[in-house]
Amino acid sequence: MKKMKKLCITFFWILMIFVSCSSDRNKEPVNVNKFSLENKPQENYKQSDIQENDEITNKEESGLIFIQPRDVKNYSGETVVVTGKVTDIHVSEKVSYLNFGEKFPKNDFSAVVFSGMYDEFGDLNRFDHRTVEIKGSVSLFRDKPQIILNSPEQIKILK
């Protein structure tokens, strides 16, 4: 008898969950593309975006935050666009680093390319001492900010 009672209670809760979930069908659907980058206008960084204090204006209306290399550390977990000069490149067998600000270990942040993507990116030395735009999610590795590049579309040479 107790098993039957437990079974009935369990069935009742499953039915309640099903009914409550299905009653949301008449509500306005959520727009999943609301934050999609494909639907956002592409904005190009311009020299005029640098204010007298040498900071890039945040352009949050595009859904992206435009920052300089020295500010990347403040945006861990965020998707940003960083514009700056690659000051140092370190290429190894497993991973490559495009360093910004100063040379490692005093760099502001690194754009990271893993060896599995070397063919996609080609010669990384072409970015050395060039001003580039990096788009991606900021993460920390050994307390240093980084953006892992998974696609060549994430980096663009400006100068």
Model description:
It is a single chain. It contains two helices and seven strands; from the N terminus they run H-E-E-E-E-H-E-E-E. The protein has a domain at 56-157: Nucleic acid-binding proteins (OB fold (Dihydrolipoamide Acetyltransferase, E2P), Beta Barrel), CATH 2.40.50. The chain has a five-stranded mixed beta barrel. It has 159 residues and is α+β, with helices and mostly antiparallel strands.
Short description:
The chain has 159 residues and is α+β, with helices and mostly antiparallel strands. Helices cover 16% and strands 30% of the residues.
Beta percentage is 25-35%
Category by helix and strand content:
alpha+beta
**Judging from the principal axes of the Cα atoms, what is the shape?**
elongated
CATH class of the domain at 56-157: Mainly Beta
For the record, give the distance between the C-alpha atoms at the N and C termini, rounded to a whole number. 79 Å
Q: How many DSSP E strands?
A: 7
Q: Assembly state here?
A: single chain
Mean pLDDT: 74
- CATH-wise, what's the superfamily of the domain at 56-157? Nucleic acid-binding proteins
Weakly predicted, low-confidence segments: 23-59
What is the helix tally?
2
CATH topology annotation of the domain at 56-157 = OB fold (Dihydrolipoamide Acetyltransferase, E2P)
The topology string of helices and strands comes to HEEEEHEEE
Q: Biggest β-sheet, characterized? A: 5 strands, mixed, barrel
The CATH architecture of the domain at 56-157: Beta Barrel
Q: Kindly provide the radius of gyration, computed on alpha-carbon positions and rounded to a whole number of angstroms.
A: 23 Å
Strand order of the largest sheet: 2-3-4-6-5
